[in-house]
Design brief:
Number of helices: 15
Strand content: 15-25%
Mean pLDDT: 95
Distance between the termini: 17 Å
Low-confidence stretches: none
Number of strands: 20
CATH topology of the largest domain: FAD/NAD(P)-binding domain
Bound molecules: flavin-adenine dinucleotide
Shape: elongated
CATH class of the largest domain: Alpha Beta
Number of domains: 2
Structural class: alpha+beta
Radius of gyration: 25 Å
CATH superfamily of the largest domain: FAD/NAD(P)-binding domain
CATH architecture of the largest domain: 3-Layer(bba) Sandwich
Length: about 425
Amino acid sequence: MTTPRRRLVVIGAGAAGTMAAIFAAAGGAETVLLERTKDAGRKILVSGGGRCNVLPMQLDETRFVTDSSVNTLRRIVRSWPLAEQRAFFENELGIPLVDEPESLKTFPASHRARDVRDGLLALAVRNGVTLRMETQVRDVVPVDQSWRIDLHDGESITADAVILACGGLSVPNTGSDGAGLDITRALGHTMHETYPALTPLLDQSGAFASLSGVSLTVTLTARAGARTATATGGFLFTHRGYSGPSVLDISHVFTRRGEAGAAPGRLLVKWTALDDAQWESALKPQGPQGARTVLATLREELPDRLAMVLMRIATVEPMRTLAELRRDERLRLIETLVRGVLPWSGDEGYQKAEVTGGGVSLADIDPRTMESRRHPGLYLCGELLDAFGPIGGYNFLWAWATGRAAGSGAASQR
Ligand SMILES: Cc1cc2nc3c(=O)[nH]c(=O)nc-3n(C[C@H](O)[C@H](O)[C@H](O)COP(=O)(O)OP(=O)(O)OC[C@H]3O[C@@H](n4cnc5c(N)ncnc54)[C@H](O)[C@@H]3O)c2cc1C
């Protein structure tokens, strides 16, 4: 007599859930993948500006953020090394990848996010996964040794195990509205307070209002209470404030409102790669160079319009020549260029956040299988867990690694 196959339900056909379903079915489980939207994988489709930054080119584990154990996080990340993830995409999914060395990002060679989403769903189906779209889960209830999955339309499905991959709270119109967080909370898991991460910042001061659309590479340092983060990368003035990878990467320091509390937080910007000594030397009049204007010197390193605004902030006449520049003016200008204070008044929240910070504590998870330590037979993966990484493919890497571990783990446990 053959033993019946283990029946698994995966909830959420995003990055983590689809990967989980692929590995669950490959592991021999009878796998059903439930998805509330009609098309699935919507975050994959909008990712990387429609190009899907599928993985980082190199991995720096220290850049992940969690309030749980860093060791547990690293164990999970190392469970599917970057080189093996690349090989999976290229060999198993048949999606060639290309690196973008200037940003350290990896993309599908086609530069089409749709190829990644479609390729994952197609492999799931080839492995025998049953896809059910427009199927919204309301609750997940442990019943004896199995699970009951209650749908919004009143139907219930039973399963030997459940993989919860509903995502977090970011960009709700992609399908993730926090349902997975509510379900895990109700099942008694330890939750770290959630907050929007990788989200643009707002500025109502008007200091840089004229610069909307200007972009450059900067180094930002954010501080709020004991929290601090530094990021070097692209920076964009928007009509509402600031965006770009450097801004998104430090935004979590300010969005953790609960903790930062009354501390408003301070944002400092180093506008160019030049440090104090290098600006000192660039702004010193040397021979015939003395007739050169300060503005012309700044324009060599900065976009024109920004150079003008920074001179105004430092209260230096734009047409001053290097020979005319007084010492106090030079020092004020260098302070503005190297440690400028960037006013900000809020953030774009979950509507624009690329990911959700906080979530289910990693202490509640077996890092080998992603099985809940509170409820055997329940597996958790992706954004609903308490971890996120910076811009650059880190968040998909997390979704792929946790999804694969959950799928394999759920299929193999008895
Ligand atoms: C604009 C944008 C760009 C991004 N670009 C990148 C990038 O280039 N590289 C990168 O690494 N990361 C990127 N990210 C982050 C990345 O998309 C996420 O980290 C990742 O998608 C999280 O995967 P997930 O499967 O956990 O959640 P999701 O992708 O959010 O998937 C959750 C799925 O569950 C479904 N679901 C939710 N509730 C229910 C329910 N009750 N019943 C049934 N189904 C449900 C949802 O519809 C959804 O399909 C980007 C995010 C955004 C918003």
